[in-house]
Amino acid sequence: MRSSIQRFALMAILTGAMTTFFSAGAALSQALDLFRAATPPDIEAAAGASKRAGAARERVAALNDGALAEAPALRITLFPGVVATFSKTGSETADGGGRIWTGSDGAGGEATLVFARGKVTGQVQLDGRAFEIRGAGGSRAHRIIEVDAARLPPEGPLTVPKDLPERKSGTLPDASSAAAAGRTRITVLIAYTEAAKAAADDILAEADLAVSLANQGYKASGVKIRLKLAGTILVTGYDESSASWEDTLNNLSGSTDAPNPAPFAGVRKKRNRTEADLVVLLRSESQPAYCGLGHYIEEPGSGTSKFAYSEVELSCVSNHSVAHEMGHNMGLNHDRYVVGSAPKSAYNFGYVLPRKRVRSIMAYNNRCADAGFNCTRLNRFSDPDATVENKPFGVEQGEKGAADAARRLNETRTAIAAYR
């Protein structure tokens, strides 16, 4: 009798596996092409688009109208000879309008696409390379850009607010209690300058893309945070090119030494009105000094809410710079190679895995660049319990070179969510 039950169970498992296999195969065989060849009018429409920092090459393609529907799989021709088919892994309503479609090629490649207002704004990671998809003009024309991380500006230096309250130890939950807690919702208000709006084909889709990429990074790292876009707001009457990044961050947060906080008064009011825990400013310059800059709050708590601000260069949204700068607000540091000496007990660092040529969201590219190569920024936080090609993607607390940003986020998330 037992052998009959076992045979039945085995047949059920095999049947389920075959059904899944053939269903996935059917989806791939029915994949829609996201783009078609661009016509001369499409190319002309894209001619006036703003240049993107970090662009290694780009081409113009036209959106296939049929791909605007909810597709189980999409085939994306990024460049001649660079083609990938992505099966849908998720779809949700975008807070700024439209839908967010996510997909995987089954071999580590990922696509995140915001379908809104007849256009696509997205990011694709494939074979260690990063690509951006952006609308261009009023037609179906889109720009596909391969990004060279070595050409992007660096993330800004660690910036500790001058009047940050003195650190109080023992105010955060320990790792075990943090891991046991359920998912925490954290809200973010995304502001944008007039220059950023002009440079973006769809600034609202950029905001949605930033939030979606951050959420994917949290999920992939076992971080129990769900980021929610609380709203967006245009900042008028402010020229970011005429002020330093440090001054702009102080102006944005309304710090006591801010030289020109007035243009951002509406941002701070809307933060209170929408009860946003965090605020990110999207800005744009032709030659940005940084990809981003955010206040570093080592120990988030009830007295640090007023410092939870950061700013990001528009061209760096697909570089996971929004998640990076918010990470500073949540208590995360850069990787140890650029930080230098730090207490052995600390573990809130990014991580670089040179042998695999990858790095985490909080890590700089310096260690790899100094060795003569580039390391791809993965959409993941350091985590010693996770692996990349069978290598740990972090170091346990208490060990030499400790790096476990995922653990630290799980410890600080409830304090951040209590800001508003």
Q: Layout of SSEs?
A:
Blueprint: H1 2-29, E1 32-33, E2 35-37, H2 40-46, E3 55-63, E4 73-79, E5 82-93, E6 99-104, E7 110-116, E8 119-126, E9 129-135, E10 141-147, H3 175-180, E11 184-193, H4 194-199, H5 203-220, E12 225-235, H6 245-253, H7 265-274, E13 278-283, E14 292-294, E15 309-313, H8 321-329, H9 336-339, E16 352-353, E17 358-359, H10 366-370, E18 376-377, E19 383-388, E20 391-393, H11 405-417
Parallel strand pairs: 1-4, 11-12, 11-13, 13-15, 17-18
Antiparallel strand pairs: 2-3, 3-10, 4-5, 5-6, 6-7, 7-8, 8-9, 9-10, 14-15, 16-17, 19-20
Give a written overview of the molecule.
The protein is of the alpha+beta class and 420 residues long. The protein has two domains: 32-147, no CATH class; 153-420, Collagenase (Catalytic Domain) (3-Layer(aba) Sandwich), CATH 3.40.390. 27% of the residues lie in helices and 28% in strands. It contains eleven helices and 20 strands. The chain has a ten-stranded mixed beta sheet with strand order 1-4-5-6-7-8-9-10-3-2. A five-stranded mixed beta sheet has the order 12-11-13-15-14, with helices on both faces. It is globular, with a radius of gyration of 22 Å. Residues 1-26 form the signal peptide. InterPro entries: MetalloPept_cat_dom_sf (IPR024079). This is Peptidyl-Asp metalloendopeptidase. Residues 154-176 are annotated as: Disordered.
The strand count comes to 20
CATH level-3 fold name of the largest domain? Collagenase (Catalytic Domain)
Low-confidence stretches: 1-6, 17-24
CATH top level assignment of the largest domain = Alpha Beta
**Percent of residues in beta strands?**
25-35%
What is the architecture of the largest domain at the second tier of CATH?
3-Layer(aba) Sandwich
Largest sheet: 10 strands, mixed
How many domains is the backbone divided into?
A: 2
Number of helices: 11
Task: Please state how the strands of the largest beta sheet are arranged side by side.
Answer: 1-4-5-6-7-8-9-10-3-2
Global shape: globular
Cα radius of gyration in angstroms: 22 Å
CATH fourth-tier homologous superfamily of the largest domain = Collagenase (Catalytic Domain)
Structural class: alpha+beta
Percentage of residues assigned to helices: 25-40%
Mean pLDDT: 91
Cα separation of the termini: 61 Å
